[in-house]
Structures are given as C-alpha cells and as structure tokens.
Amino acid sequence: MPKPTKGPRLGGSAAHQKLILANLATSLFEHGRITTTEAKARRVRPLAEKLITKAKKGDLHNRRLVARTIRDKGVVHELFTEIAPRFENRPGGYTRITKLGPRKGDNAPMAVIELVQEQLAGGAATAQAAPATEAEPAEATAEETEAPATAAATDADAEAKAEGDEK
C-alpha cells in the first residue's frame, strides 16, 4: 500500500501533489522532455518509469491503470503505441535527469527530465561499438578540413612572399 509523503509536499496537500505529478508525467510523455525544478523531476521520475513499465505489458488492465494517472487519452495512446515499444528490450532507466543552472527570479535549481532516446539493441557490446564508428568519420572530416585550411594558408604565404620580392 502506498504511503503518503512525510514532510513537505509539492503543492501543499497530498491531492495537489498527486495532480502535479500526473500533469508532469503527461507533459513528459507528450513532449519527450520537460524543464522543471530538480525536486519535481526527482519526484516524477519513479512515476514515469512505472507507467512505462505498465505500458510495455500492453494489456487492457494496464491501459486502464495508466489512464487513472494520465487522463489524456491521446497521450495514453502515444505511450502504448510509440513510447513503450521503443523501450521493449530495456529493463528500466527510461528517463534521464540533467541538472541546469538556477532559475532567474527565485534561484530555484532547475533540471531537464527526458525520455532516453537511444535504443538498447543487443547489449553493451553494440553500444560501445556505435560510438567508435561515429568517432572515426569525425576524425577523418577534421583532418580533411585542416588540410585545405593549411593549403590555403600556404598559398597565401607564398603570394605574400612573391609580392614582397617584387617590390
């Protein structure tokens, strides 16, 4: 049985906190990422993870359980048809919290909570191989961009010397 939060709550009362978290989760599933305070981001993360886990099961009972929290039918549909299949092979950790600087005005610590975009395909071996293949072309393009720049600089130096010799 869920226990009420002890101490200060988001929004004042337990009912208001429940509504705030439901609205934050709805916005997270609708937009993919939201900017909010660190406290709210930390509180909405477990709720969002549990809702995604229920959506991964995909049956009617879990759809109704999710619809209790997420009241927008369009967002529930998107959660079950688009978001849950993306995390089918992932055993958890569907969200990421990135801290931002303080908010201008009241200096509240801000954070971005977002759905993780990369898909887990076959384990850590493929995850490590993918960045290596991306890094190689980046190095090659860096060398290619440096080569014409140095060639242009050498041509400019040669022209300057030629002009100096002529005078």
Automatic annotation (TrEMBL):
It comes from the Bacteria. The keyword Ribonucleoprotein applies. Residues 122-140 have a biased composition (Low complexity). The keyword Cell membrane does not apply. GO terms for biological process: translation. Keywords: Ribonucleoprotein, Ribosomal protein. GO terms for cellular component: cytosolic large ribosomal subunit. Residues 158-167 have a biased composition (Basic and acidic residues). HAMAP family: Ribosomal_bL17 (MF_01368). This is Large ribosomal subunit protein bL17.
